[in-house]
Amino acid sequence: MRRIRLTATAVAAAAVAGGLALASPASADPTPAGTFRTLVGVGSDTTQDVLNALAGDTVNGTSYADTAVKAGSDGIASYDAIEPGTGAVDSKITTRKGGPSFLRPNGSGKGRTALTDSLAGVPFGTGASIKNQVDFARSSGGPSASGTALTYIPFARDAVGVAVKGSALQNLTTAQLHDIYSGVLTVVNGQQVRPFIPQGGSGTRKFFLGAIGVPDDAAVDKIATVVQENQADDAVKSDGDLVPFSVASWIAQNNGIAPDHSKKAIAGGAFLASLRLPGNQTFSSPVAVKTDGKLTPATDFYNDATFGRDVYNVVPSRAIDPTSVFFDKSLFDVFVTNGTHEAALATDTAEGVIAKFGFVNEPYNGSINPAKHAKFGGLEDSTLPTALPGTPATKAVTGSGSLNVSWTAPAATGLPVTDYRVVLTDANGLPVQNKDFPATTKSFVFTGLKAAKYTATVTANNLVGGGIPATVTTPVKYASHTAATAAKVAYGTTPKVSVSVTDTHAVTATGKVTVLEGTKVLGTGTLSGGKVSVALSNRLSATTHNLSVAYAGSSTLSASSTTVKLTVAKATPTVITSHPTTVSHTAHAKVTATVKATGFVPTGKVQIMEGTKVLATGTLASGKVVVTLPTLRTGKHTLHTHYTGTSTTLARNGANFAITSK
User: Fold this and answer.
1) What is the β-pairing status of strands 194-198 and 241-246?
2) Which letter does DSSP use for residue 167 in this model?
3) Which of 335, 443, 330 lies closest to 394 in space, CA to CA?
4) Rg over CA atoms, the chain
5) What is the distance between the alpha carbons of residues 545 and 518, in angstroms, rounded to a whole number?
6) Helix 174-181 vs helix 203-212: angle between axes, to the nearest 10 degrees?
7) Residue 60: left if φ>0, alpha if ψ -120 to 50, beta else—which one?
8) CATH of the domain at 497
9) Would strands 375-377 and 393-399 be described as parallel, antiparallel, or unpaired?
10) Are 385 and 462 in contact (CB under 8 A)?
11) What is the Cα–Cα distance from 262 to 21, expressed in whole angstroms?
12) What is the DSSP string of 499-534?
């Protein structure tokens, strides 16, 4: 049978002509016109009305200003999937004062794409870049792209039912729905069926087709007529018509809470079919009727794994990470429940509003834990590159209790680098510090570190995610300060260099110190209590020595060094003379000269002098020499021994002595 499909454009045209229920009281964008708020959301038709209410706007004639959800003064700006009042699907919105005008995202998928394009700074569809124009996306379905760039924060529980007309469709099985939307089954209980399906990108469309096992592709559009999501007036007019529908939206419209796009259909006999849930033998209605005639969720249907679903607010993962440079505290405060922090959307007041719109409140409202219904997804614009950044070249330079980590940008791949994540871990792999830096930053100094081994991991991130990290491992020590003194000594006396090593962290230095002259090692010592006296050779030349003192460091302290001057003076000797007191004027007197010094035996020459006249000279051997004098004329001669000195020993005169020649 030939079927005339009512396209989205036709829906809009009919609405403008005033013939459709789209002209019902609008659930309006932020009002009054020209109102701008901090947290901009677009996307899902399913959750637009409840988000409009939580934003504090007027929904279906009811003002929710008194229960507006805010983070401080920052409020929500929720823009409808289609233009309020007219139902136009090609209208444009402006979400920031002075910002660009762009096509209104119609449905969950397009909302997530708009959020992606806002992050990437590219146009949404045609037109100018919409960078930073969208903060979150309303989504009635999970991710379409793998990755972690976007966090799907569960908001409430919904279900997807099937709005139908005609008693033949009162009860439907999953198998029947599969066959109907596959084009295999065209008659149910003798009734010709006419399937309708929400527009492409609709979260309800995607979820429903997934639940009944039908691929969401162009083939469906050839089998089912495309209509605007959650608007039964355009789909369910005659017996045999059926269309997937958000149960929460059906309840809210029927109860007069949300703008009613199903009033005509219901007046004409439309209702939600009972479905046979997997494993059940009976059929379950998605809704229950209260005593006042109002509809309420059928809890079992909402909790069913096939037709029950979570609805989400999708945010950039980096924006709700308190360690990220892109952290948005207002976004976090409104949407995230984590630990003791409760999302503003999870308060009793907010959940009271949520329940009015046909949703079931769940304890995981605001969760960012996958174990508690949160999901992660990738960027949802297929035109964007998907490559991750490369690995940055990284190095680390240690200081006193500090580590200077620096890096260079990796080679360009795909989207540009947005930030660098630097994680410092200890020897056990436990995080010590976690830092995120904008793309313009290329180094950071970690201070206040304990002396230990650390590993710095540097990851370049772009909107897609993080690349392969670079790692560098190095010990961090405290700086040491080496000081040294050396007292002046005489040649032959053991010189000592007094060394002390200190630091600024109350650590007692241990380890070895080495005293050098140039490259020659003169002595070593082991610190005790941070000090040591290093004894050097007593044979150092008699001069001023420029010494270096090097501390080798320890597991805690870094190496350090200093210089010190050591002056070695010539030794002052003692000259002792033994001699005869009388001698024949024809004999040669023998004088024994002994030269002594501390620590060594002097060498060199001695002279036996009478006044200034040298009578005889001898060379020391083992510090002693016997000098034979020439014959002395008769009489008393006053003599003395003169030691001429060497490079290590001062010259010295012995005491006067007398020899009488007869």
Assistant:
1) parallel
2) G
3) 443
4) 48
5) 10
6) 110
7) left
8) 2.60.40.10
9) unpaired
10) no
11) 8
12) EEEEESSSPPP-SEEEEEETTEEEEEEE-BTTEEEE
Structure confidence at residue 644 (pLDDT): 98
Residues 329 and 216 both lie in one domain: yes
Same domain, 27 and 132: yes
CB atoms within 10 A of CB 561: 15
Q: What's at 313, amino acid-wise?
A: N
Assess contact for 141 and 206: CB atoms under 8 A.
Answer: yes
Q: Are 559 and 580 in a shared domain?
A: no
Would you give the DSSP letter of residue 391?
A: P
Q: Phi/psi at 517 (nearest 5 deg)?
A: -120, 105
3-state secondary structure of 253: helix
Nearest to 580 by CA among 517, 467, 657, 507: 657
pLDDT, one tens digit per residue, over 491-524 is: 999 999 999 999 989 899 999 999 999 999 999 9
Asked if the bond preceding 297 is cis, omega within 30° of 0, the reply is: no
Sheet holding 443-446, edge to edge: 393-399, 402-408, 443-446
- How far apart CA 558 and CA 649 sit, in angstroms, is 42
What whole-number distance in Å separates Cα of residue 245 and Cα of residue 473?
Answer: 57
Question: Does residue 59 sit in the same domain as residue 162?
Answer: yes
- How far does Cα 359 stand from its chain's mean position? 36
Can you give the residue range of the structural domain that contains 228? 23-379
Mark out the alpha helices in 326-433 (DSSP H runs): 329-335, 348-356
The per-residue pLDDT for range 55-107, each reduced to its tens digit, is 999 999 999 999 999 999 999 999 999 999 888 888 999 999 999 999 999 99
- Spatial contact of 197 and 13, defined as CB atoms under 8 Å apart: no
Extract the tokens encoding 560: 């350090």
How many Å apart are CA 30 and CA 54, to the nearest integer?
Answer: 11
Query: What number of CA atoms fall less than 13 Å from residue 617's CA on the CB side?
Result: 6
Residue 303: what are its φ and ψ, rounded to 5°? -85, -10
Residue where one domain finishes, among candidates 475, 490, 517: 475
Torsion 168-174-179-182 (CA) sign: positive
User: Element (H or E) spanning 117, and its range?
Assistant: helix 108-120
Give the predicted TM-score (pTM) of the model. 0.80
The reply to whether 139 falls in a domain is: yes
The enclosing domain of 161 has a CATH number of: 3.40.190.10
**Total count of domains within the chain:** 4
Largest CA distance in the chain: 168
506 touches 494 (CB < 8 A): no
Please count the CA atoms within 13 angstroms of the CA of 11 that sit on its side-chain side.
Answer: 28
The pLDDT tens digits of the residues spanning 132-153 come to 999 999 999 999 999 999 999 9
Instruction: Answer whether residue 12 is part of any domain.
Output: no
Give a yes or no: residue 302 inside a domain.
yes
Identify whether residues 613 and 562 lie together within a single domain: no
pLDDT tens profile 418-461: 999 999 999 999 999 999 999 999 999 999 999 999 999 999 99
The closest alpha carbon to 483, from 502, 504, 509, 511, belongs to 502
> Do 503 and 471 fall into the same domain?
no
Of the three residues 379, 411, 446, the one that is the final residue of a domain is: 379
| Co-location of 563 and 579 in the same domain | no
362 and 333 together in one domain? yes
Q: What is the Cα–Cα distance from 523 to 5, expressed in whole angstroms?
A: 99
Residue 320 domain flag? yes
Burial 435-469 (b: 16+ CB within 10 A, else e): bbbebeeebbebeebebeebbbbbbbbbbbbebeb
The answer to whether the beta carbons of residues 455 and 470 sit under 8 Å apart is no
Check residue 418 and report its DSSP letter.
Answer: -
